[in-house]
Amino acid sequence: LFSFPTDHPFMRHRMTRCRTHLCRLQPGERIQNNYTNIPLGEIKADIDAILWSMRLCQLRRFFHQRYWENETRDAEYANKIESSPRLESVAEHSWLVADAVLIIGPHFEKINLPHCTELAILHDKLENITGDKNPVGRDGTGLKTHAFSEQHRMLKDNAEIEALNIYLDNLRPQIRDRQRKLLLEIIDGKTDDALFVKAIDKLLALAFVYKKKKGNISDKHLHFTYSYSRKICNYFPQMQSHYEELLNRFIASVAIHRSVSIESIMKSFYRPKQGKLF
User: Which of 27, 57, 157, 190 has the highest CB neighbour count under 10 A?
Assistant: First the structure.
């Protein structure tokens, strides 16, 4: 089993057996099972397209160009030290979220694609002031961070509101009101468009863990990633099938790396609930 790639027919069969269990939710969560019937082939194609787009982040500009010899040499040394894909920047992540909006969004008529694309481009821009908040925390569970703590989530939202005021002061008045409305919408997270972008945001986070770790992940990190990524279904239930497809690939990569069955990893998820989704 473990010599097969994840798209091998035998591996697909094993993954299909697991499909109904991977997105099982805990009592009290908002997700329902009446998500849209998108053909599986289209879902797989969407996930393939998202993962393919991530390759663009590894393509360096000015690389091996005249007048950029010293910088090219430094970049080549950096590539030897950090395995590919390298840790992504916030800007790269934001572009990938916007790209994924354009890939998955057409499935849903209620989604305003141009508006969602604007939200995606701006959704993490305030991190230029607040920094990239750590969802894992020192203990690796996320229980004491905005990931699973309502109190810490509110603190994060308040910090973003303060950062928003600082950011807006730097904009010319003609565009200030438009960006205020967009950023407040994504912080508030109540409109269909904002919830869709938040779901895409978490999907891209899972995609990066899948691509970067290549299955080499600790139990604690694995359980956090599983718990945190389930917010995708909480934010936008219609994306459950896309989440399952990517999660299946992620779980399969861990199983292959550990030379264990997919089922054994799945069973480990049915332990006491790690954190409440809000």
Answer: 57
Counted residue by residue, the chain has a size of 278
Q: What is the pLDDT of residues 175-198, one digit of tens each?
A: 999 999 999 999 999 999 999 999
Is the Cβ–Cβ distance between 53 and 207 less than 8 Å?
no
Q: Which residue has the higher pLDDT, 7 or 112?
A: 112
Alpha-carbon span 40 to 43, nearest angstrom: 5
Calculate the alpha carbon distances from 106 to 36, 43, 68, 110, 204 in Å. Answer: 13, 12, 41, 9, 17
CA pair distance 61, 273, nearest whole angstrom:
45
pTM, to two decimals: 0.85
CA distance 73 to 76: 5
3-state secondary structure the chain: CCCCCCCCHHHHHHHHHHHHHHCCCCCCCCCCCCCCCCCHHHHHHHHHHHHHHHHHHHCCCCCCCCCCHHHHHHHHHHHHHCCCCCCCCHHHHHHHHHHHHHHHHHHCCCCCHHHHHHHHHHCCCCHHHHCCCCCCCCCCCCCCCCCCCHHHHHHHHHHHHHHHHHHHHCCCHHHHHHHHHHHHHHHHCCCHHHHHHHHHHHHHHHHHHHHHHCCCCCHHHHHHHHHHHCHHHHHCHHHHHHHHHHHHHHHHHHHHHHCCCHHHHHHCCCCCCCCCCC
Report the largest interatomic distance among the alpha carbons of the chain, rounded to a whole angstrom.
60
Determine the straight-line distance between the first and last CA of the chain, rounded to whole angstroms. 38
